[in-house]
Amino acid sequence: MVVTRRISFSTKGRCDLIDITREVAREVASSSVNAGTVTVFITGSTAGVSTIEFEGGLLGDFEAMWQRLVPANLPYQHDRAWGDGNGYSHVRASLLGGSLTIPFVDGRLLLGTWQQIIVADFDNRARSREIVLQIMGE
Amino acid sequence: MVVTRRISFSTKGRCDLIDITREVAREVASSSVNAGTVTVFITGSTAGVSTIEFEGGLLGDFEAMWQRLVPANLPYQHDRAWGDGNGYSHVRASLLGGSLTIPFVDGRLLLGTWQQIIVADFDNRARSREIVLQIMGE
Amino acid sequence: MVVTRRISFSTKGRCDLIDITREVAREVASSSVNAGTVTVFITGSTAGVSTIEFEGGLLGDFEAMWQRLVPANLPYQHDRAWGDGNGYSHVRASLLGGSLTIPFVDGRLLLGTWQQIIVADFDNRARSREIVLQIMGE
Questions:
Q1: Per-residue pLDDT tens for A64-109?
Q2: Is A73 exposed, middle or buried (0-12, 13-18, 19+ CB in 10 A)?
């Protein structure tokens, strides 16, 4: 059985980290699929998905890591060619990855207590985003 | 068909890298699912999963990379707020990712010869860990 | 329903980035699975998969990031033990990850317009590569 759901929301960009755990859990619970996996996939090339303990200090630490590893203020060839100024956003997204697959049983996600699902929007401006949830199982 | 299995083990933390290939292969082979995917998912927010050639030199190189990119001895906001001292563990886990999906055919994982499945436990202390295997297919 | 397909190609190694979007889309469209997920999995331990806007500037930026984070010219324990000279290739591959799961509906991948699927071959020599596509759904 395959059920496709979408979640839409607005972001502020610039490493905006959005907790979508509740929305994913709700779509899985209401899908009538009892056990299987939900693939969380971000459409677009300047955002990624992962899990984190969604706590203010860690969100700051995660953003600080991105600023160290893929700084916004380096010169990027993408920006020279296209003038978007978001070369760093693309590079961060490609490193983090755009898909995450989470198992569930009895309609409940098998996440840890302190493990939330996040979208990281690395773009350099506010965006409307759409996440695809592919719920599969029996 | 969906089969859920769990693997439990102890780790030493501090970038302990554990080869779970044999256990995953055994659960897939004994699942009576012939072809499909196994999603390897780590419950918790201070460990991740990936693949590596499980060889002592590389394990050291992988750990050295983490110490360069997300050092244990930087100040982390998480540690200031909660005193756990494992802010770096969380950040590493979020970057590496907590899910991995591996195809199999005829009950055998389609891994390369030198490609093992690992759990990287980044926490700053010994832990009991549980991995969920969601085996799906026909 | 489970359909297994393989894509073979040659690479130049040394962070060769190959766009496989068209091949993946074609295999999904011809699989007779209407809706589900395709898991893109790289066999081997010196290459990874991700998505990127496949544009020359960004490909250069992505490669520059790898050279900053996991430089080819550091000393690696793997190279000392085995003399392959590709310790950095393994470490990059383990960080990027070897699997990617993409949803599709009506036989079409739910990718963004500027979001292509890539294989990153980090090895230090030309290689023949094989990608496994596990197409699952109904």
A1: 999 999 999 999 999 998 888 999 999 999 999 999 999 999 999 9
A2: exposed
Nearest alpha-carbon partner for C114 in A129, A43, A42, A39: A43
* Mutation site for A-interface testing, chosen from B43, B78, B101 by largest number of A Cβ within 10 Å: B78
Residue C40 has pLDDT above 90, yes or no: yes
Q: In chain C, what are the domains? A: 2-137 (2.60.120.460)
Look up the pTM and report it: 0.98
Query: Is A9 strand, coil or helix?
Result: strand
What tens digit of pLDDT does each residue of C68-111 get? 999 999 999 999 988 889 999 999 999 999 999 999 999 999 99
Collect all residues with Cβ–Cβ distance below 8 Å to B114 and sequence separation of at least 6. Answer: B53, B55, C44, C45
Q: Chain B within 8 Å of C69 (Cβ-Cβ)?
A: yes
Of B39, B80, B94, the CB nearest to A52: B94
From residue C42, alpha-carbon distances to A9, B112, C48, C130 in Å are: 33, 8, 6, 7
Interface chains of chain A (3 or more CB pairs under 8 Å)? B, C
CA distance linking residue A20 with residue A129, whole number of Å: 12
pLDDT computed for residue C131 by the predictor: 97
- Could you give the angle at the alpha carbon of B104 between the alpha carbons of B30 and B92, nearest 5°? 100
As a whole number of angstroms, the distance between CA C23 and CA A61 comes to 39
